[in-house]
Amino acid sequence: MRAAGRVMCGVCLCSLCWCGALCVVPSVLADADDASLLGGWQDVWLFRLFLNVLGYASIIIPGYFLIGYFKRINYLETGRGLCFPVIKTCVFGNESKTGLVDDASTAARNESESSSSARQAVKLIFCAVGLQASYLTWGVLQERVMTRSYGASEVEGSGERFRDSQFLVFMNRILALTVSGLWCVLLKQPRHGAPMYKYSFASLSNILSSWCQYEALKYISFPTQVLAKASKVIPVMLMGKIVSHKSYEYWEYFTAVLISLGVSMFLLSSSTDKHPSTVTTFSGVVILGGYIVFDSFTSNWQDNLFKYKMSSVQMMFGVNLFSCLLTVGSLLEQGAFFDSLAFMMRHSEFAFHAVLLSVCSACGQLFIFYTISQFGAAVFTIIMTLRQAIAILLSCFLYGHAVTLVGALGVGVVFLALFLRIYARSRVKKSSKRAVQTPVQKV
């Protein structure tokens, strides 16, 4: 409990310190022109982030003390009544742990390996098309919602933009919660063992990373964001050493350096025509940095949670449950929930985009679980890497982003490094399997 509390407090304090320390930067660097771009101090991203974190803290801190209280009084032994099963599930769970193996996924993968080649090919095409359609549509809609105005006409002028990234995060999570909940009810799942409150760590970092992802599009181009996501392997490795005490091979460090080089080439060669202010560019880089850090923590914490016997869909349900609680609480406290609903009522096109965005996100998560269960992580990584490359081309075509020759070369270096990682990992797995299968001869 103390270790969990330290991790949660660390994430919250890190977020608050990140906001507070950077709060002075816009005030020092911004000028009168930047104020008009931001549309008032209420729309400054640091101020919004600070309010969001305060909203999450108003839910997390009382929850932390409640969990400590139930453990201190040994409620598992002394508790009775209608609330006992709920409190037991949320605070104590089934503390027995198993390996990192998902039984359902392993069985499905073994079955897929023994099925016919034609059937496997059809499944692979289905997974690839589903992932590409879901996430390419999601990427295009994400850029449309965050960078374009709604209600624009020749008579009324430029229209109005939707500014609350947290509401979009809530929309995505509530639909994903519904889909994963139905999945858990309709299909047999392993007996759940983890205390529910442990999902809140991943939920908090996942909310913050998603918020940064949406908010960054106000300040940077979508291709820049996609490349930044591709480079998150570097902080994931760092966070893996810190959180999970993992060790890495030399080729992992080499490809990480290549990715850094490619991203640097792209960023340094990018045109600043659409982002004339250095403050805007700096803000985008800082927000992207926040996205990468929080997302790296999320993946590593989820890896630790899989030590309990659970399926991927149960993980999806648990994380999205706390994500919904945190985001809706913060939105209601700020009064932004009904403002966002009013915006949806004024602009039916935005309502359609927001719902479709959430549908694509939820379907994409299901395709991720299905693809990994059928073909493993390597095939899934190849499909998603191709998706990132197509997303950059699609964004440049639809929204007119200019890419210089050096920038294009940087993109090529990034994706070359990603495919090198996939190839090296597959070689390592094959050699390890070969070593296990080779019989040892006694002399």
Automatic annotation (TrEMBL):
Q: What InterPro entries does the database record attribute to this sequence?
A: EmrE-like (IPR037185), SCL35B1-4/HUT1 (IPR013657)
Claim: Cell inner membrane is one of the keywords in the record: no
**Localization per record:** Membrane
- A cellular component term (GO) from this record? Golgi membrane
Q: Where is the signal peptide?
A: 1-23
Q: Which Pfam families match?
A: UAA
Question: Which keywords, in A-to-Z order, does the entry hold?
Answer: Membrane, Signal, Transmembrane, Transmembrane helix, Transport
User: How does the entry describe its membrane topology?
Assistant: Multi-pass membrane protein
Span-the-membrane segments of this chain are 46-70, 250-269, 275-294, 315-338, 350-370, 377-400, 406-424
Family as reported in the entry's similarity comment: Belongs to the nucleotide-sugar transporter family. SLC35B subfamily.
- The entry's protein name is Adenosine 3'-phospho 5'-phosphosulfate transporter 1
Source organism phylogeny: Eukaryota, Metazoa, Chordata, Craniata, Vertebrata
